[in-house]
Design brief:
Order of helices and strands: HEHEHHEHHEHHHHEHHHEHHEHEH
Helix content: 40-55%
Mean pLDDT: 86
Largest sheet: 4 strands, parallel
Number of strands: 8
Distance between the termini: 51 Å
Low-confidence stretches: 1-24, 206-222
Oligomer: single chain
Bound molecules: iron/sulfur cluster
């Protein structure tokens, strides 16, 4: 499947209002929705755009009105993260000249075909064709099976009229920032906190209660009295969107839980686990699967919670694979939580309390 076509991308970008016929642009305000790929690639994209003299406009944190507007604009049977994304797109339409929307076709080089989910592959088209008044869109096409990270920013460079040397410099800087960001995620920082650290290093608070070396002996320390350790597995745009997840991480911590995220498992540890199982093609779900297997074998983990959302095709399959693996083993206690836009805060709190209570009362891990 060959989806990346440079010419088509260039043609779309040239339709941005701030772009002149020769591709040069002054002070273009580029909107980035705070949803989906924001949690993975925002530091990279912001650094690239600013390195090319563009201005980034970021949508605010998700709130009720924003989700409601997004859900109204979407087809009914789509997952809540896409509805959230549409809400952020609507919020940015008046604030930015163009929107930068990622088309994540393939995010890893691999010997077998790997993809993200169909919604992420078709996201620019969904936005373009679902809105009564479609925004101007710059596509950030990531197709590492057929291209590279460097080629993914060609469209942004074209829209901003950046010269090859400026593009190279912006790319180099963006890769460095992104690398620092990913290290902080591995060390246990939340995306928002890590973004603040890498993009505003002087303003970011020095302290971050979640710092710890990933997969190190430190993680295997003896628990403090009464404290239990739970691994939270799920897409970062679900876990770390406080409105959508009803602040699930905070709720767990408030119950005395020492929390570790699936994003803290190193790629090496994930690949080691996945090597023992049949290949699957969804890159992001592979990470969840590998992280689940990793946590299953760790002595210091008391429980594993898998957060999924309703109407997610890939998660419905991978979630089942993870569940079966846990239910037939003697590993940590395991539960799944499926959420959508109708999920109530009280329901999340009850599930958290019940799971934590079950672990505390259980003698399985004694
Ligand atoms: S992976 Fe699932 S939750 Fe994420 S965008 Fe695709 S369908 Fe939605």
């Amino acid at each position: 499947m060959q989806i990346y076509r440079g010419e088509r991308t260039v043609a779309r970008i040239a339709s941005c209002p701030a772009a002149d016929p020769y591709g040069t642009v002054d002070n273009m305000r580029i909107g980035i929705p705070r949803a989906l790929s924001y949690y993975r690639y925002y530091p990279f994209l912001k650094t690239v755009i600013e390195g090319m003299d563009g201005e980034v406009v970021l949508s605010p944190s998700t709130r009720k009105s924003l989700l409601e507007k997004g859900a109204y604009q979407c087809v009914d049977d789509i997952c809540v993260p896409v509805k959230v994304y549409f809400g952020h797109v609507l919020d940015l339409m008046e604030k930015a000249d163009c929107l930068l929307i990622s088309r994540l076709v393939s995010v890893e080089k691999s010997n077998c075909d790997t993809y993200t989910c169909p919604k992420m592959i078709g996201l620019p088209d969904m936005v373009r064709h679902s809105m009564e008044e479609a925004p101007k869109i710059i596509e950030h096409i990531v197709d590492l099976q057929n291209g590279s990270w460097k080629s993914s920013i060609k469209g942004i460079a074209k829209a901003l009229g950046a010269s090859p040397s400026v593009t190279r410099k912006a790319y180099r800087e963006a890769m460095e920032v992104q690398s620092s960001y990913e290290k902080l995620l591995l060390a246990g920082q939340t995306p928002e906190s890590a973004i603040e650290h890498v993009l505003n290093p002087h303003g970011a608070a020095a302290q971050d209660g979640e710092h710890s070396a990933p997969n190190s002996k430190k993680e295997h320390a003896v628990h403090k009295d009464g404290q239990i350790k739970i691994a939270l597995i799920g897409h970062e745009y679900l876990i770390h969107d406080a409105y959508v997840s009803h602040s699930l991480p905070d709720k767990l911590r408030s119950q005395g839980v020492d929390l570790i995220y699936s994003s803290q498992v190193t790629p090496e540890a994930i690949n080691q686990e996945l090597g023992k199982h049949p290949e699957i093609s969804w890159s992001f779900e592979k990470e969840l699967l590998g992280a689940a297997y990793h946590f299953q074998g760790r002595e210091d983990i008391d429980g594993v919670m898998l957060l999924m959302c309703f109407a997610c095709g890939p998660d419905s399959i991978v979630g089942e694979m993870i569940s079966r693996e846990f239910y037939r083993s003697e590993g940590p206690a395991f539960t799944t939580m499926v959420i959508d836009e109708h999920t109530g805060e009280a329901g999340v709190a009850t599930r958290v309390e019940a799971f934590v209570d079950l672990i505390r009362r259980s003698s399985v891990r004694l």
